[in-house]
Amino acid sequence: MNSNARYFSTSLALACALVLADAARAQQAASPEPRAVTALDEIVVTAQKREERLLEVPIAISAITAESLADAGAVQLADFLESAPGVGIVDDQSGTQTIQIRGISSTFGNATVGYYLDELPFTYIGNSQVPDVRTYDLERIEILRGPQGTLYGEGSIGGTIRILTKDPVLNAFQAGVDLDGSSTGDGEENYAAKGMLNAPLGDTAALRLVASREDFGGWVDGPAGREDQNGRDIDNFRAKFRWQPSENLDVVLGAWLTRNDTVGTSESLPNRTTPTPADTYVTDYDVYSATVRWSTPWFDVVSATSKMDYANDFVSSLAGAPFTIFEEQDLLSQELRLTSKGEGIFRWTAGLFYRDIDRRTLTNLAAFALTQDQTQKSEAWAVFGQGTLSLLDRRLDLTLGARYFEDDRLFREPVDAATLAFVRQLNPNFQPVVTPKFDTFNPRLNVAYRFSDDWMVYGNVAKGFRTGQAQPVISLVLATLRGVTLPSAIDPEELWSYEIGTKASFMDGRAVFEGAVFYNDWKDIQTLVTLRTGPRVAGLVNGGTAETTGIELGLTLQPVDGLTLQFTGAYVDAKYTQNITGTPVRDGDRIVGVPETTFATSATYRWPLTGSLNGFARGAVQYTGDRTDVASGFRPSDATTTADLRLGLESGPWAAYLYGDNLTDEDAAIDPTATGPAGIATRFRPRTYGINVRYDFR
To answer: Disulfide-capable partner of 629 in 157, 463, 634, 653 (CB 3.0 to 4.6 Å)?
Structure first.
């Protein structure tokens, strides 16, 4: 996003503020009612590619609504994601994050969690991290736990996260503004301005614009007396155009542009200093989409076309000289699916999927005049279907689904002529390009029984997978020169999941409970190894197996009007079940980055103060157990506990809040590294106090 876009981002927020201030003066004051928190059994989700009440979906799923995000003051995934049971996240404030669900975690290869921005599968080649998404004006976030290989395909081996933005609203003018300022202990101030505008364009069309600018100050002191060397600037712009000429046709065009400029990260010693100069990260991703929904009397047709341009620049230093990595990925995806209509005894979904990715990575180490230029490609397609048969007066549902997936890969890396000639003396068939092909079949069986409209139990057996990878050319070159055998590609991983769960609503809808127990059998784990036959050669192999077993619980209570209590927790026993040759991993070691125990609890209360004014209070506590990373030789992390508090006044369309984040000033190690002095680790932002003012015109 260029400087003009940044200027527009801030200007739109300020313009909205002026429009809304004028609207506020013209609007007659009305006595507000305490806004009810959306109960779990009232939320409608589309996790199974059709609209369903959350309580009726027979899989483990959490849904975070726009209202819940606003109540929590959440601005990014790390603010709330671990409130879903069995989910973990590590955010080093560099613009990307690592997420694991149910103990399925890897620091290498493609992500183990499917990640969707509306209909776009946000997929990297060979990168397990996902982007930092801003939460302003989202519709909701759905977190599907367990493999979702049937409907969501490659990468959803541990689960799937869906980021759903709001569509334009026809025949209604809407606008909003959100202003925020805060101060971080031992650090700098933070500022944010966000705005939304929804404008009808006649009776059949509407435009929705969202823009934000966020400046986060630093708190980590660097070498040579440099204070607060880390910081972030985030520009975000979304535009959606909707055209609905009839009840049977709905067309939505979208654009989502994000730029994240970061200096340094949250890695530091416990005293919030680091001996390392700050690296810089610039992350851009532009997402464009076209979704067409056509309704017939028998079924709905959805065509979802998405395109993403992603770029990441990393600048560091090595031996006092610049070290840079430039990466860009272009992604095009197309899904065409049909979904049956009505609530008959048989409901089905079927579709076709196509995805094309081009990735280029350019690494330059100036001190040694070394340049590495890699090109990777992936062209994949899939066919999938799922059907549900309802029996016993719709008490019993039997669901069977399957997906067939093919992926053609390419890895090209230039090799200088002299080296190539020498390698071909040892292996005449050697080529500086690898072109493997992968395919996999992934079934799912689900059985659900409803004792009543408010109580369901279900069992689920599903296969998830993570596609294979081509061996880096440089690894094949070194292996040939040193007489080491490496495969030209590694096979897809596969995981079989077995789960039993229940969902129930009781106390006249004032209490909702969900629980699940699961077992995952994970095979052919993709691993980076160092082969120790003679000189060391690093390469990719399918190595070892693992198991994860766990229990997840969630409870929401509304004991009195205006008060909502929530608790979620999980215990996950995630361990490798084989020694992995060439790595420190041994049978019985814990899987990388997985805490055994997590829980989150919160209380939200609204009450009337006067005829036109409500009070608001929300407190939350989050606990995450320690993590290990024996595969990389990292030091173990610490268990962490954080607490947040938010107090406010609300009156009709406006609200003002005072808040404190990380009130415990937790500075324990979230994710230690193996490099640098002992104690260097990813840590939370220190205790932060702030004020937030909002105005929403509907």
So the answer is: 634
Please report where in the chains the tokens 């180490």 appear, as a residue.
Answer: 365
Q: How far apart are CA 687 and CA 303, in angstroms?
A: 46
- Count structural domains, the chain: 1
Q: Which domain holds residue 54?
A: 3-266+281-338+352-697
- Are 197 and 178 contacting, i.e. CB atoms less than 8 angstroms apart? no
- Write down the residue that tokens 């025949």 correspond to: 171
CA 276 to CA 287: how far, in whole Å? 34
User: Is 198 within a domain?
Assistant: yes
- DSSP string for residues in 179-215: EEEEEETTS-EEEEEEEEEEEE-SSSEEEEEEEEEEE
Rounded to 10 deg, the angle between the 417-426 and 473-481 helix axes is 60
pLDDT tens profile 64-88: 999 999 999 999 988 888 899 999 9
DSSP H or E run through 67: helix 66-72
Query: Residue 530 has which token pair?
Result: 């160092």
User: What order do you get walking across the sheet with 130-131 strand by strand?
Assistant: 87-91, 96-101, 130-131
Contact (CB, 8 A) for 536 and 530: yes
Whole-structure pTM value: 0.91
- For residue 483, the tally of other CB atoms under 10 A from its CB is 11
Q: Is residue 272 part of a domain?
A: no
Is residue 499 in a domain?
A: yes
Residue 28 belongs to some domain of the structure: yes
Helix, strand, coil percentages (3-state) for the chain, rounded to 5, are 10, 55, 35
Q: Quote the CA–CA distance of 93 and 695 in Å, as a whole number.
A: 28
Q: Which residues of the chain, if any, have pLDDT below 50?
A: 1-40
Question: Can you give the length of the chain in residues?
Answer: 698
The DSSP string of 638-663 is: --EEEEEEEEEEEETTEEEEEEEEST
- Please write the tens of the pLDDT for every residue from 148-189: 999 998 889 999 999 999 999 999 999 999 999 999 999 999
Which CATH number does the domain housing residue 683 bear? 2.40.170.20
